[in-house]
Amino acid sequence: MSLRTGILLAALIFILTLVVRLPARLLVSYLPAEVSCEDPGGTVWEGSCGRVRMNGVTVAGLSWKLHPLALLRATLSADVSSSDPNNGGRASIEATRSGDLSVSELHAVLPFPPGSNVMPRGTSATLTLALAWARIHETHLVSIIGTIGLQQLHIADPPADLGSFELQFPATESSTMTGQLRDLEGPLAVNGQVVLQPSGTYEINGTTAPRAALSEDLSKALQFLGPPDANGQRTFSLAGSL
C-alpha cells in the first residue's frame, strides 16, 4: 500500500467514525416547528428522544435505528419504536429522496384526549394501528394493508359515548383501496365501506341502526340521516378529498 493510499484510507475511516458518532441532538434543529424532541440521546444513526410532542400528542421513550446501506439507494430507512406504556408502537419506515414514504409492520396505540389537535374539539378516542404495509406518494395514501381501530369514541356535540369501530383494508392488486367498516361495540350498529383513491378522494357509504334506546340528543342527530328502512336502518354517505 502506498503512502498516499494509506493517508486517504485513514482519512476515510476518520470521517466515517465521526459521522457514525454524530449525536442525536443534531437532528432536533431539523424537526418541523410542531414537533419537539426532549432529552435526545445516542447518535444520529441509533438514538432516542425521552419525549416527543406533536399536535397535542406526547410519546415517551421513542428510539430509532437507521440502516446505512439504504443510503446507497438514496433512501432513508429506519426501525422506530416507543416504550411508552400508553403510546407504545413500532414500525419500519423508508423515505425516498422524491418524498415517498413507506411504512411496514406498524403496530401502535395512540390515545387522543379531548385537548389534542388531532380530533374535533371535545372529541376523544384511542387510535390503534396494525398495518402490514402503507405507502404515501406525493402526500397521498396510495397503498394500505391492515386494520385501523378507533376505541372508546366520545363526542361532545351531542355528548355521547359511541363505542369502538374497526376499518380493515385487505391486500389488493387494484389501485383503489377499499376498507370494510364495522362497529365493535356501542349504541349504534354500523356497517359500511370506505373507498380511497390514489388521488386523495374518498367515499364512505354504509348503514347504521340503534341497538337500544338512545339519548334524546343522539336520537335527534340520527334523524338527520333520514327515516329508517323496514329493518330500522339508516344509510349514510360521505365524500371528499384528503
Summary, kept brief:
With about 240 residues, the chain is mostly beta strands.
Shape: globular
The secondary-structure element order is HHEEEEEEEEEEEEHE
The poorly predicted ranges are: 3-19
How far from one another are the termini?
60 Å
Summarize model confidence as the mean pLDDT. 85
Strand order of the largest sheet: 1-2-3-4-5-6-7-8-9-10-11-12-13
The radius of gyration over CA amounts to 23 Å
> Main β-sheet: number of strands, strand sense, barrel status?
13 strands, antiparallel
Broad structural category: mainly beta
Tally of DSSP helical segments? 3
Total E-strand runs: 13
Q: Work out the strand percent.
A: over 45%
Helix content percent band: 10-25%
General description of the model:
The protein is mainly β. It has a domain at 22-97. Helices cover 12% and strands 55% of the residues. The chain has three helices and 13 strands. The protein has helices spanning 3-20, 25-28, 216-223; strands at 35-42, 46-54, 57-66, 75-82, 89-96, 101-112, 124-137, 140-156, 159-169, 177-185, 188-196, 201-210, 234-241. Residues 3-19 have low confidence and may be disordered.
Q: Can you lay out the helices and strands and say which pair or pack?
A:
Blueprint: H1 3-20, H2 25-28, E1 35-42, E2 46-54, E3 57-66, E4 75-82, E5 89-96, E6 101-112, E7 124-137, E8 140-156, E9 159-169, E10 177-185, E11 188-196, E12 201-210, H3 216-223, E13 234-241
Antiparallel strand pairs: 1-2, 2-3, 3-4, 4-5, 5-6, 6-7, 7-8, 8-9, 9-10, 10-11, 11-12, 12-13
